[in-house]
Amino acid sequence: MNKTLVVLMLCAFAQSAHAKEPVCRDIATSSARLACYDLASPPKPEQRAVKESDASRPPYNDPFIAEDARTTAKLKNICRGC
Fold it and tell me: Counting beta carbons within 10 angstroms of the beta carbon of residue 64, is it exposed (0 to 12), middle (13 to 18) or buried (19 or more)?
């Protein structure tokens, strides 16, 4: 029973020590609070968006367009009044 209690207490203290975050809401001045929040979550670098007119990439060919055209041609060739 004693060992179980010790293990549970160690787990509880380990989680609180691991999950320390800066307490920004307790800061009185708004500029210092904003600086604290900026340090807590730094901005992520922006990724370059892929442009459709990029010359280094070949144009996208949708394989379903060709499949749809073949299926439509087969359906139109079915004789309904034979």
Answer: exposed
Mean pLDDT of 4-32: 72
**Tokens found for residue 57:** 């990439």
Whether residue 19 has pLDDT greater than 50: no
Q: How far, rounded to the nearest angstrom, does the alpha carbon of residue 54 sit from its chain's CA centroid?
A: 25
CA angle 50, 53, 54 (to 5 degrees): 60
Q: What is the pTM of this model?
A: 0.32
DSSP 9-56: HHHHHHHHHHT-----TT-SSHHHHHHHHHHHSPPPPPPPPPPTT-TT
Q: Which residue has the tokens 């800066």?
A: 22
Position with higher pLDDT, 72 vs 1: 72
